[in-house]
Sequence to fold (175 residues):
Amino acid sequence: MRSARLFSFAALAAGTTLTVLSVATAQPERPSRPEGRPPEGRQPEGRPEGRPGGRSGAEVPNVEASMKGLNRALQQLRDQVGDPAKKDACLKLIGDAQRGCINAKAGTPHQVADIKDEAAKAKAAESYRKHLIAVARKLLDVEQNIMEGKGDAARAGISELLKMRDAGHEEFGVD
Fold:
């Protein structure tokens, strides 16, 4: 009787072990980390510890740098917008200009932030935002004209954008 119990116990232990092993080997393999990503728990070089890679929701874009990027793209577009051979380069530049515009719109220029009167500050902030909304719309029109091969219309749109830039700079006292 004792040997029968021992045999039953050994068979039960062996069966349990086989079951656990078969379940463990049937589990899907963990996906490897995507290429270019550091192992978990480590920050990529150049990134401060404890900060995510992208923009945080609280981070405000630098208005001046965004405006400079927008202006740089417009200057380059003005020089090459009519050349059909440079269509791809123009589309990249228009994307850069749009990105600069949207980033600038998300911030507040110091000319507006420095206004002491709250009512005047609110009015200036609204005017600034409306101006950049109009710029963003015009950039989309220029992009569509570039895509459709309408070089003259795109060139005219760039000229209008440069006039809008000058008017905005005059309104907000930008040199």
